[in-house]
Structures are given as C-alpha cells and as structure tokens.
Write a structure and sequence with these properties.
about 400 residues; 21 strands; alpha+beta; single chain; six-stranded antiparallel β-sheet; Immunoglobulin-like
Length: about 400
C-alpha cells in the first residue's frame, strides 16, 4: 500500500478488468509479462483481451518515442495520459528492459509485428542507452533532453538497472526467434546462428547482416534432412520498401505478409538461402498534438534507431536550433565514431543571441543563421564530452 494507492503496484483491480497502465512502471511490465505467460500457457483469452487493452493504452498515451516509459520520479511510473516531459523524464532503464520482456512474452502467442516492432524500439534505444559504450557506467533515468547535467553513474543506491541490462543482453537469443511445432519466426535481425528442433528435425539458421546500420539480411537454412515448416520474417513498420527472395526467386511480399510477418511455407533443404532487403529510410517523427511538450517539434529516426543532437557536435544552446520541414536529411557511416555508427545531418537554423542585446523581450523575432546539424543514435549519447542533449528539435 505504497503512496496510499493500490494503483502503485497494479492491485487496484483484478488483472482481467484492468484497461489502463498505472503505478510503478517496472512493476507493471513484470506483471504484464507474467499475465502474457499464463495467457499463452493456458490459452486464456480473457487475459489476452486485457493485455491488448493495456498494450494499446501504453502505446497510444504513455510511451516515449525512445521506448522509455514512466515519466515521474515520484512513483517511478505513470501519471496521466500524454504526460511525456522530456528534460524531467524518468524513463527508468529497468522499465524499458521490462517492455522488452513483455513484448517478447506477447510474441509467445504468435508472430505479430505490433509487439516485435516495439520490442525492437525499446531494445535499441530506451534500454541500452542505460549502459555506456565501455560497459562501465549506467543510467538509472533516461531523459530525452539534458542541459548538460545528466550523466551515467558508476553505481547507484538502487542498483537494479545494471544487472537488468546484463540479463537482457545475456538472453538476447531468446528474443530473436519464436518457435512452434512446424513454424519458426524471426523477430530480430543481426549476425547470429541458432539451432532448433522443428518437426523432429535439427535445423540450423545462420543470419548474416550489419543490422541496424544496414537493412540487408541473408539467412541460410540448414536442416539435417529436408523438412517442411513455415518461416515467418518480420517486416518492420518503419520500413517503407522491402524485398524478399528465396534462393534468388522474388517473393510477393504483399500476398505473403500477415500481421507484419512474411510467411514462407516450403520444404527446406540444406543450403537454402533467404534474402531480405529492408530499406533503412530516414524519417521525421511527430507526436500526438495532445503531448504538450512536443507540439511543434520533430524527432529523427533511421530504421529502428531514434536519434538525438549533442552539444559536442552542434555547440551549446540546442533549444535555439530549428529543423525546417523542407531540410534534406543525409546519412553518413562513421566507423570511428562511438564504436561505429551511422549519423544523420541536415542544414537547420539557429537563433542568434549576439544581435539581441540586453532586452528580455522584443517585438522583433531573433535573427537566425544557418547551421549544420549532426545527430547520433540516442543509445550512444553521453559517451564523449559532457554537454547538452536533445531528441525533440524545434521545427522551423
């Protein structure tokens, strides 16, 4: 009975009657993960309906663009609909890790990109941002804006996040694939090899890819003997153009795709090769107008990655920068930056302070000057010189 409300630990209603994400964000993710496990194990449709209600509520009213959740430090959790402050965002690392867990459990009921896409978003952005690139420092909170005072800890008085990231990374293979009696789903992409038993046969799957920097994915299927099963391949919602080939033959993606997964049913033989080409397009993202903190602002994305601007690349006063809607975005491979990343750039504008004078208010708007913007993946921020950071840019 913490904070004098049962909503804090989601005990305010029977779980099958709940329709809104409330209370402590990490507790909520763990509860919903357990509900999903039971719904899958026992085929409990009443739990499935409740879970879908809760999922929709989180996705449409209470989730940060980074896959972070829980805006308030007071209850380490949820407040009200569309309350998503950026600079004071709590967005605990454990909460994003918990969202990965929950989404993975929902996929136990069958391949559906609505869960896998968000698992990927939380995995590549709001969770691993909690760990420095050298693995020695940790974020407890993951704000989307900083004036230069937010940095990772060597340790924390509540040290839940370091081992939580550790167990997520250590179990990453369990999130890549989903297995049924005669079906195999590929939820995530990246260099990997795995071995499964399908329809009584041992089957090896080898992925070759530079994902998420590149959308080309090659999958070699290696059954010990010919075996028939369905291979489900996720086509992410952020991908505007995709192509799929099996042994060089083009597959009709539109006809083959159900719930965001392309299904290939065939007798697989040793050496069969699947090629999936996902266009890694850049995108401007806009928030629901009811999110008061983000109105008139734009976030940048490429593939599954959310981007931010840092003072070390763009100078101070990031709040004075604007990105015109017509500005052209460009992607650049930078193998020597932040362990090897793809950065984004564009020509924006910056409000000048030099010509303003001492007045606090004036009738005339400030003069602006053109400036080149450089954005880096959000997960990699605060790994260089300390300084400001911003996800949501003003739109010029």
């Amino acid at each position: 009975y913490h904070f004098k409300t049962y909503e804090y630990n989601q005990s305010h209603k029977p779980v099958r009657e709940q329709d809104k994400v409330v209370g402590h964000a990490v507790r909520a993710m763990y509860l919903y993960s357990g509900m999903a496990d039971i719904a899958t194990e026992y085929g409990d449709d009443t739990l499935r309906v409740a879970l879908d209600r809760l999922w929709d509520d989180l996705m449409t009213k209470s989730l940060y663009v980074t896959g972070g959740l829980g805006p308030s430090a007071h209850n380490e959790g949820f407040t009200s609909d569309y309350d998503l402050p950026n600079e004071t965002a709590y967005a605990e690392t454990c909460a994003s890790v918990g969202l990965v867990f929950w989404a993975s459990r929902m996929l136990g009921m069958g391949p559906n990109a609505r869960y896998a896409d968000m698992m990927e978003r939380a995995l590549y952005n709001g969770s691993i941002s909690g760990l420095s690139l050298d693995g020695s420092l940790f974020f407890y909170e993951n704000p989307l804006e900083s004036r230069g005072g937010h940095h990772r800890w060597k340790w924390h008085r509540c040290p839940c996040c370091p081992p939580n990231i550790g167990r997520m990374v250590a179990s990453i293979g369990s999130y890549f694939y989903g297995l049924a009696d005669d079906a195999l789903a590929v939820h995530l992409y990246g260099d990997s090899s795995a071995r499964f038993e399908i329809a009584g046969r041992q089957v090896t799957l080898v992925q070759t890819s530079n994902y998420p920097w590149d959308g080309a994915v090659a999958i070699e299927v290696g059954p010990e003997a010919p075996v028939a099963f369905t291979l489900h391949l996720r086509v992410p919602v952020w991908c505007r153009k995709a192509a799929l080939r099996v042994n060089g033959k083009l597959v009709d993606l539109e006809a083959a795709t159900v719930d965001g997964y392309a299904a290939i049913r065939r007798e697989w033989r040793q050496g069969d090769k699947v090629e999936l080409d996902l266009e890694m397009s850049m995108a401007r993202l806009f928030a629901n107008p009811q999110v008061r903190q983000d109105i008139g602002r734009v976030a940048l994305a490429r593939g599954p990655l959310i981007y931010c601007v840092e003072e070390t690349d763009n100078g101070g006063g990031l709040h004075r920068i604007a990105l015109p809607r017509e500005a052209r975005l460009e992607a650049h491979k930078e193998p020597n930056l932040l362990g090897g990343v793809v950065t984004l750039s564009a020509i924006g504008s910056r409000a000048e302070t030099e010509s303003w004078g001492a007045d606090l208010y004036r009738r005339e708007p400030p003069a602006t000057e053109a400036t080149k913007l450089k954005a880096v993946p959000y997960f990699a921020w605060d790994n260089r010189e300390p300084g400001e950071m911003l996800v949501w840019l003003r739109e010029g």
